[in-house]
Design brief:
- InterPro entries: AmpC-like, Beta-lactam-related, Beta-lactam/transpept-like.
- Its EC number is 3.-.-.-.
- The chain has about 450 residues and is α+β, with helices and mostly antiparallel strands.
- The protein is built from twelve helices and 20 strands.
- The protein has two domains: about 350 residues, Beta-lactamase (3-Layer(aba) Sandwich); about 90 residues, Lipocalin (Beta Barrel).
- A hairpin with a 4-residue loop joins strand 10 and strand 11.
- Helix 2 packs across helix 6 and helix 5 crosses helix 6.
């Protein structure tokens, strides 16, 4: 049994080439915070337990929590449409996309609109105004496809109903009631703390662009300490009751957020999604959690309601997935939870008929050109538009390893020491083809 998580984190982080990290554990009524390394290789400033990191898309659960507060207050319903709540929204399906669709990533809106709409407090109003330019990938409710754009819409709904900018609603509704002192959304506030800087996958150096555009704030721009993230995790672990004893969310709303709403197959580690929480079946346990990725920073949180354990990992490196796999496996094993192994390539004869998958697959921010090479399927992946300037590799070729003999399921990985992630080729009911990777639907052109 590991008793010194600081030492163990140091061993595993060094092996994974992660410059800095903080591990947070809430278990048995006690909190453990284990820091490691440096905030930036450029400055060499040491990581402490109070250091703040970008939590990326874990921010979405904070946005969803505020939406569920508004539901409990009777100010909106899960089946209200965007058009009902935002008359300003003019994208084609606004009268059919509901709050529930947005929370469960089933709206069909092209999900990776990273357009910078400026630093003004009207950033979300402007963001919603550009969505008519977004492609509608499928009909609302027809499939699951991870959708950043939808949480920009949810953020704007919160603003309109609360009559204040999203950042202020976050402060009033959650940050202050939870007693958090190391949770911010703006860089001018982050620099008042020991703030981590992301690192490049290319050469491991510190990045030169610290954050995503402000237009993505309710999507993924919360910056905070591991202790503050654990306080939020405990809010959900305790069915909406804050660590200080105040109820911030109805118990029924908290439970609904982690109940299966949409099954998901072919997404790494996920069995489904609730009202934003991702569900993970580990052995005989169903955990819930979320991951987050920004510019060179990766974050993870997992919660086991049976063992009453919450674990988070904040890092400043794209090498973090390997660290997460090794570290969380050990942490949760101490509480009787068996984390499943990562997928591995199929060890058998090469599948036949791979030509049926060749072609170009396109959505906002990325293009996949799939071809058959000497060793099997190969994908040339190109970042496009606003995402190209944020990508470590604007263009990269991956060999797709078969995951089974059927020839529709494959795996890729970012490097030899990183875990494999699924890539699946599927068809819509109308026969049109799409690629499913990273939890996203990418249609064939």
């Amino acid at each position: 049994m590991v008793t010194d998580w600081t030492a163990r984190l140091a061993e595993l982080a060094a092996a994974a080439d992660v410059p800095g990290a903080v591990l947070g554990i809430w278990a048995d009524g006690e909190q453990t915070l284990a820091p490691y390394g440096v905030l930036s290789r450029a400055t060499g400033v040491e990581v402490t337990a109070e250091s703040v990191f970008q939590i990326g898309s874990i921010t979405k659960v904070w946005t969803a929590t505020m939406i569920m507060q508004l539901v409990s207050e009777g100010r909106l319903g899960l089946d209200d449409t965007v058009a009902d709540l935002l008359p300003e929204a003019t994208f084609a399906t606004a009268d059919r996309v509901t709050v529930r669709h947005l929370l469960t990533h089933t709206s069909g809106i092209d999900g990776d609109i990273f357009t910078d709409t400026g630093r003004g407090d009207d950033y979300l109003e402007k963001y919603v105004a550009i969505l008519p330019e977004a492609m509608q990938i499928f009909e609302p409710g027809a499939a699951y496809s991870y959708c950043n754009s939808g949480f920009g819409v949810l953020g704007r709904i919160i603003e309109v109903l609360d009559g204040r900018v999203w950042d202020e609603s976050l402060r009033v509704r959650l940050v202050e009631p939870l007693g958090l002192n190391q949770t911010v959304t703006l860089p001018e506030d982050a620099i008042l703390h020991r703030a981590a800087v992301g690192h490049s996958q290319v050469d491991g150096s510190a990045v030169t662009s610290w954050m995503l555009p402000r237009s993505l704030t309710p999507v993924g721009l919360i910056t905070q300490s591991a202790g503050d993230l654990l306080a939020f995790a405990r809010l959900h672990l305790d069915d909406g009751v804050a660590p200080g004893g105040n109820r911030l969310l109805d118990a029924s709303a908290a439970a609904a957020m982690r109940e299966l709403a949409v099954p998901v197959s072919g997404a790494s580690g996920m069995s489904g999604v609730g009202l934003t929480w991702r569900l993970n079946d580990w052995g005989d346990r169903r955990l819930y959690g979320h991951d987050g990725v920004t510019v060179g920073q990766f974050a993870f949180v997992r919660i086991d309601p049976v063992a009453r354990v919450a674990v988070c990992l904040l890092t400043n490196s794209p090498n973090a997935p390997a660290l997460y796999e090794a570290l969380f496996r050990e942490v949760f094993a101490q509480y009787g939870v068996v984390m499943p192994g990562t997928p591995e390539p199929y060890d058998g004869p090469a599948p036949e008929g791979l030509e049926r998958h060749t072609g170009t697959y396109l959505r906002s921010g990325v293009t996949f050109d799939v071809s058959v090479g000497p060793g099997g399927l190969r994908a040339l992946v190109r970042a496009t538009g606003a995402r190209a300037s944020l990508a470590d590799f604007p263009e990269r070729t991956y060999d797709l390893a078969p995951a089974d003999p059927g020839g529709d399921h494959f795996l890729l990985r970012e490097g030899p020491d990183q875990p494999w992630t699924p890539v699946t080729f599927r068809t819509f009911p109308d026969g049109s083809r799409y690629l499913f990777s990273g939890g996203r639907v990418t249609p064939a052109t």
